[in-house]
Amino acid sequence: MTDIVITGLGATTPLGGDLASTWQAMLAGQSGITSITEDWAADLAVRIAGMVKVDPSEIIDRVKARRLDRSSQLALIAAQEAWTDAGLTWELEGEVDPLRLSVSIASGIGGLHSLLNNWDAQRDKGPRRVSPFTIPMLMANAPAANIGLAVHAKAGVHAPVSACASSNEAISLGVDLLRLGRADIAVVGGTEATIHPLPIAAFSQMQALSRRNDEPERASRPWDRGRDGFVMAEGAAVMVIETLEHAKARGATIYGTIAGAGITSDSHDIVQPDPSGEGQSGAMLKALADSKLAASDIVHVNAHGTSTPQGDVTEAGSIRTALGEAVDGCIVTSTKSMTGHLLGGAGALETIASVMALHDRMVPPTINLEDPEPGLGIDIASVPRPLPAGDLAAINNSFGFGGHNVAVAVTNANATR
Amino acid sequence: MATTEEIRAQLAELVNDVAGVPVEDVQLDKSFVDDLDVDSLAMVEIIVGCEEKFGVTIPDEESKNLKTVGDAVAYVEAHL
Predict the structure, then answer these.
(1) What would the 3-class secondary structure string for A360-391 be?
(2) Which of A79, A110, A305, B66 is found 20 to 30 A from A249 (Cα to Cα)?
């Protein structure tokens, strides 16, 4: 089976407007969580979030932007960075065969701002004030479709939806398409832009969010005993992946390999993870099998680690189950401690963080881990931790409401920089 | 009462805002679709924008006949 290599990376996040600044901030242990100072947040129980460091209006042309939901704007910014990083020219057709180019870009929720803003307009001013662009802005496949238009992809554009596992599922689908020979190169990843009073109120009503409003930078604290829920964030992360043969033929620079992926579903509850962790460890074990890796090959896990009281404990157990004795040689982190939870963008950002950790041989820290939950049995990086020389492999976990579990395995094999 | 030129100028601002067409290109003889590259969804926004800006009503069946900037300006003038 052909190797699937990573040749371009891009991100726009609460830590930085591109991947380089995001990654540097991660290694420096910085928090991207801030107070929401807008008036609309004043009466919310939760008034903190991870908002993108660089607003898309500073980058995207005004006329183009007014036809794009914020989720698509962020996705396009990350995709342009990844595409350019892969040595390709944004919006130029023909550098790669369009009939062999696919797109798989997820959003967990879709064009929420467009949906709600147009409802506001209709309710307040009548149906004539609804934008004719509302539907192409709000549809969950819009980020994928907009990227497909920009890169001239004609081998299929896909938008898998599985809540907070969506973008890892998008990566997994992209890998499958390349392995099946349905494309030679693919743009994969995810995006989310839901910092709006409704989803904040809705997640808050579920008691899912941290209410540490007076200390935003300390609010996301996976595995710390003082954790009280996740912190919503927005952003996008995108990779260009291709078959090793295609990458070599065009002389692309290679970051590493997507070795494989594993997907399971809990069939337990619509929002609660199965406390046995069977589905979570099952996804990791499937990823190992798909990648032809042994548990002892995994030196690093970028965990889902959202900072919820139960979820973090369940995942620690799942990691122990999946890796067995090899868990002792594996450094675990949750970069959500710094970025917050990008929902449908989380898996892609954290898979990219895993790729960068192997590439730079440095695991970014889990910040705010001051009083670790006892008995977790996993080695969590509370400070940046170096990785050894040689061939390395890592797993990124993403889990979503609905019982979706997607683990993606990456290696530094084939890396040429 | 607004003059033809005043209506054209305000419409030009609207077309620029919605579709990014330079205001100086929005002249009476120009076709929205063929000359100014305004697509059908942007045209809907321009029609609704005219209704807001000028306080006129432009029914959907009428809006189909507004092919040029001059058509739109004449419609607005006649219904102010």
Answers:
(1) HCEECCCCCCCCECCCCCCEECCCCEECCCCC
(2) A79
Of the candidates A200, A229, A249, which is a domain's last residue?
Answer: A249
pTM over 0.95: yes
Show the domain range for B13. 4-79
CATH value at residue B40: 1.10.1200.10
Q: Is residue A256 a part of any domain in this protein?
A: no
Which residue is associated with the tokens 């997607």?
Answer: A406
Assess contact for A186 and A158: CB atoms under 8 A: no
Query: Which of A113, A158, A300, A304 is the catalytic position?
Result: A304
Domain that holds residue A173: 4-249
- Of B20, B41, B51, which is closest to A133 when you measure between CB atoms? B41
Residue where one domain finishes, among candidates A220, A249, A278:
A249
Question: What is the total count of domains within chain B?
Answer: 1
Q: What ipTM was predicted for this assembly?
A: 0.91
Q: What does the pLDDT look like over A51-91, one tens digit per residue? A: 999 999 999 999 999 999 999 999 999 999 999 999 999 99
Helix ranges, A107-235 (H) = 112-125, 134-138, 142-151, 166-179, 197-205
Which residues does B contribute to its contact with A (CB < 8 Å)? 18-20, 41-42, 44-45, 48, 51
